[in-house]
Amino acid sequence: xxxxxxxxxxxxxxxxxxxxxxSTTLKHKDDFLKALIKEIAMQKLFFGENKNQLNTVYFxxxxxxxxxxxEINSIFDAIENNFTVASNAEITLEANPDDLTREKxxxxxxxxxxxxxxxxxxxxxxxxxxMNRAHSSxxxxxxxxxxxxxxxxxxxxxxxxxxxxxxxxxWIENLHQAFAMNVQHISAYCLTVEPKTPLDxxxxxxxxSSPDEELAAQHFETMVDEMEQNGFIQYEISNFCKxxxxxxxxxxxxxxxxxxxxxxxxxxxxxEYRQWNINKNGVYIKAINEDKIPFEKEVLxxxxxxxxxxxxxxxTREGADLNVIQxxxxxxxxxxxxxxxxxxxxxxxxTFLENKICLTQTGKLFADAIASGFFIIxx
Length: 379
Hints:
single chain, alpha/beta, Arc Repressor Mutant, subunit A, 2 domains, nine-stranded mixed sheet, three-stranded antiparallel sheet, 15 helices
């Protein structure tokens, strides 16, 4: 099982909290697409000879919904010419509500896309303005309804909590609006102040207040309760789905499956090493045109692979499986986990059932700190 990630590095405008790689100018889009299609062919042996079957394809960004039907089909033709795409593959397109007109949705329906991930973030115009989003609350409502009407039946929406000025009641209303839309999947992330973003700059200059961590924790606890009451399964700390609709692509990341990332800044993992493409569009295009893939690479030691497994698996409903740890890394690693978990059990931050360490709801508030306690630090 393997996944393919395609990074489309263009946006209409910059959201003030985002630190992903993107450009707000589209003047190099055609050159980029030609380079991307060429990179697809250059990377066809990434998984090895006769091991190139893809179970998931994910168009992320940036804003992939800026692409046309023809552009998506051209990319997918190149994928199918170089990889074997499973007949039941999950093929996701990230999209912004302001792009999803009925005509654009009809176009996407004429491509292999079978799952939409829509960046709604909030149904409140005050929040959208605060984050410098290009769409309105009404656009968000309309695009989801239109997507369902036009035949998309696997839809995920993104929401953000911890926004300054977002009360508990406001957040509950946001969630209830999401439930009323009959989507199959909701990803909800806490607003994070990333260095060197406009949001970081505004806070440092005193133009806006910093997010309230205590309020964000209350948002999280409220969300977990509301999701459960409305039939959504929390299969990862920030991800909730109706039964059978978890993101297969992202689940592969969390379980350590192999994946290939194409385009500027895209990351790849083959089980032994991680590599990432350069995050400059012009340099990427020039290098590909010269038959070079501009990437850096890190060979992962056993300790680093163990640390990554713990970090990602603890975020999931299944937790960190000591049988998997013993088989992948050795008995000393599973013994280490048992010893480290003792203090977390005493604090009721974890449970230990069926040889799996799982976070409690309270533990999920401290997920990264708990995971880092299991890490084996190299000299």
